[in-house]
Design a protein that fits this description.
The protein is an alpha+beta fold. It folds into 3 domains: 160 residues, conserved putative lor/sdh protein from methanococcus maripaludis s2 fold, CATH 2.40.420; 102 residues, Elongation Factor Tu (Ef-tu), domain 3, CATH 2.40.30; 121 residues, Helix Hairpins (Orthogonal Bundle). Helix content is 36%, strand content 31%. The protein is built from 8 helices and 19 strands. The strands form 2 sheets. The protein has a 6-stranded antiparallel beta barrel. A 4-stranded antiparallel sheet has the order 6-5-3-8, with no helix packed on it. A hairpin with a 6-residue loop joins β10 and β11.
């Protein structure tokens, strides 16, 4: 019995020694800084959450939100109407043969300019020369008969006056003279027609313009009924473009045309990168398209260099008016939502919502009317994370990336620069030319320098991740 109790006591002592050894090993591991990955992750997440609230992360609505801003300006602004259209010839003529026959010669070069009245082609003239000669012969014969009848009429008048011939014979001779005179008129018309048909064998250009490709080859028989004709001529000086604008613009257009005030029109290429030509509005259509609520407008371009071609696609910019001394903001700053049209104004870190009325839009700028003053700063990037009365932290745009347009893409570039600075801070990078001075000191907003310095490397990485999640860019985390 004593042996069993002694054996049981030794087992319990052994278990106690093992437990004590495990406890000592755990204490030693903690002392060596061997915290578990889970604990480090939890600590970084806690630091990221705190940094996010301090720096205006996506979910830290009560903190400052990082934004990019631009300044409200006051200047003149063009009222522009954008449309699409295609170049059309002011006049287009299909040159067809007016008489049938064999095509003997072509006197034009495809694609080259031609003048009005210039001979373009020759149709075999021999059959028409023969017809002309026949008409001339008939005319000569009938003219001789008329001369003889007139001579007989003179003699009959003398005889009747002397009572040597009956009056009826005189009347018959007078009628014969009038009949031959009418025949002579008919013969002369036949001669003129024969000459006209002969002239049609020389095909001439009805208008001046640019010749197209030939539609018939030498040696072929051509007729007036040929659908494609011999060639087409496009009058490209001036060139025309027809485009549609909303019918609400019609009163202003008609007023400008009635006052003899030119309406400037620009034609741009498909990518809107190159200005092709400048011209002015010539006329409008006589009816509004009820389906689209638009009206067609025709503009003319001098096209002296011949750079515009028929059916060429162009982007059209019509300048209807010019607004004087109006408030102008970047188009990226204008927001639309439940309040209507508005912008966010940042002053001393405070955000204020200002409702606006849009006057006109010209590219990257928008003319507005509302409670704004020149010099105020409006948010161009980061507005989706703001609310009226909230706080915002303005991200400075580097000089190389600054732009007056205040576009969204450039604002994201500024935020990406700040994020890249944070990445350098997280990795402890130094400027190659500045010795031990960290590179991020020159790019991070001043108010964040001390905060980042105070953070541990894990916290700085967490801040960077939270800053990127808030839309600051795609800087790599080290």
């Amino acid at each position: 019995m004593q042996n069993k109790d002694s054996k049981r006591s030794r087992i319990w002592v052994l278990i106690a020694v093992v437990v004590a050894g495990l406890a000592l090993a755990g204490w030693w591991w903690k002392g060596r800084g061997g915290a578990s990955a889970a604990e480090r992750t939890a600590g970084a997440a806690s630091a990221a959450s705190d940094a996010g609230r301090a720096t205006g992360g996506r979910f830290g609505r009560s903190g400052s939100q990082p934004v990019s801003v631009a300044t409200v300006q006051r200047r003149d602004m063009n009222v522009i109407v954008d449309a699409i259209g295609s170049i059309a010839s002011d006049n287009m003529a299909v040159v067809r043969a007016k008489v049938g026959g064999e095509l003997k010669a072509l006197y034009f070069h495809e694609g080259q300019p031609v003048k009005a009245g210039q001979v373009l082609a020759l149709i075999d003239p021999k059959p028409y020369e023969i017809a002309r000669d026949q008409a001339l012969a008939t005319l000569a014969r009938d003219r001789a008969q008329l001369d003889n009848a007139r001579a007989d009429l003179v003699r009959y008048r003398d005889l009747v006056a002397k009572d040597a011939a009956p009056r009826q014979q005189l009347d018959t001779q007078e009628a014969l003279v009038r009949q031959l005179e009418a025949t002579l008129l008919s013969d002369q018309a036949a001669v003129d027609n024969a000459k006209l048909q002969l002239s049609y064998t020389r095909v001439t250009a009805p208008i001046a313009g640019q010749a197209g490709l030939k539609q018939a080859d030498l040696g072929n028989n051509v007729t007036p009924s040929d659908v494609n004709g011999l060639l087409s001529i496009a009058q490209t000086q001036p060139a025309a473009v027809v485009f549609a604008v909303p019918d609400v613009r019609l009163p202003r257009i008609r007023q400008q045309l009635a006052d003899k005030q030119p309406l400037a029109v620009q034609a741009w290429d498909r990518e809107r990168k190159q200005l092709l030509a400048s011209g002015r509005v010539a006329s409008t259509d006589n009816a509004i398209d009820a389906t689209t609520g638009t009206i067609k407008v025709k503009a003319l371009f001098p096209n002296l260099d011949g750079s515009l071609f028929t059916n060429q696609f162009v982007n059209v910019r019509l300048q209807l008016d010019r607004l004087k001394d109006v408030l102008v903001v970047p188009s990226a700053a204008v927001q639309r939502g439940a309040p209507g049209v508005y912008v966010y104004v940042v002053a001393d870190g405070q955000v204020a919502l200002r409702k606006l009325q849009i006057l006109t839009v010209d590219g990257d700028w928008t003319a507005v009317q509302g409670d704004l003053k020149p010099g105020e700063q409006v948010v161009t990037d980061g507005a989706d994370r703001l609310r009226d009365g909230g706080k915002a932290e303005v991200i400075k745009v580097p000089a190389a990336g600054a732009s007056g347009a205040g576009g969204r893409g450039r604002s994201h570039g500024a935020a990406a620069s700040a994020a890249s600075a944070g990445a350098s801070a997280a990795s402890g990078g130094t400027d190659a030319a500045g010795g031990d001075r960290p590179r991020w000191l020159d790019r991070v907003p001043p108010e964040m320098v001390d905060k980042l310095k105070a953070m541990s490397p894990e916290d700085r990485r967490a801040w960077l991740q939270e800053h990127r999640a808030a839309g600051a860019g795609s800087a790599p985390a080290n």
